[in-house]
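Notes, p. 3: input format for complexes.
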Amino acid sequence: MSGDIIREESMTDLWNVWFSELHQNRVGLTIKVKRLLYSGESPFQRIDILDTYEFGKMLVLYGSIMITEKDEFIYHEMLGHVPLFTHPNPKEVLVIGGGDGGTVRETLKHPEVERVTMVEIDELVVRKCQEFFPEVAGQISNPKTRLLFADGEKFLSSTQEKFDVILCDAADPIGPAEVLFQKSFHQMAYDRLNDDGIFVTQSESPYFHQRTFKKLYENLSRIFPIVRVYWAYIPTYPSAIWSFTFCSKKYDPLADFDRERYNKLQLETNYYNDEIHHAAFVLPNFIRKLING
Ligand code: SAM
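Output follows (293 residues plus S-adenosylmethionine):
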């Protein structure tokens, strides 16, 4: 996928600036740009931050949309609350990637969480998100947050710490994120989880990225006893259908949904709720077929 900023003269406006994210170089999402807020290169990737008419500010890494102000809540609520309302007492949470801080924000809405460790490879992404997306990145400076700038795979291979929940909020399996889609990384995640631990990874679009999605499911099914896919509708992600793969050593996301904690917490969300928690695991046949081979 590549993103180009194209300029197009039109009858109505002096200049229309559009950002296009292309999928498989055959399909694209085009969004009208109000202003270019930042463009730069880190040692890991190109970073662009655009202000758009429809989706507000948008973080783009290597030409791919990572978050927008308008729809980031969907992805972060679904990545965070499904596992955190399944594990009965998630004290130690690890977020791999997640440089924008949205997953940390949702994680810290759970009072049981004593510490969330965020291992993000690119410090420039964090600093720019703190500057341009304070409503997303605000909890990175929470005293409960431990922020480490490192490769998630190297961190897991060197730490002896254990976690209750590990959330892989990686970008697409290209560049620095490629290692986060490998079986060896998933085995390390399994090893770094407590005996009742849960691992959830974003697992791409089951429409546009079927090979990656299927391989991920197969690999994880060989490592974890419980592996289930859930999905959400995210307008600015490729195909707008986005998947998450839930992996667990003990708890089932439906049978062990902690309704008492859910009712007590009265969480303020805009997408996730108790019914969505269950409905998200209901899969269209084309996804079932991908999973069942
Ligand atoms: N929601 C987005 C998605 O589904 O594609 C992910 C957003 S988040 C910005 C992705 C983050 O993963 C980026 O900040 C990137 O720098 C980070 N990242 C990529 N490879 C990594 C690695 N090996 N270890 C830690 N962080 C990594």
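Confidence is low (pLDDT under 50) at residues 8-14.
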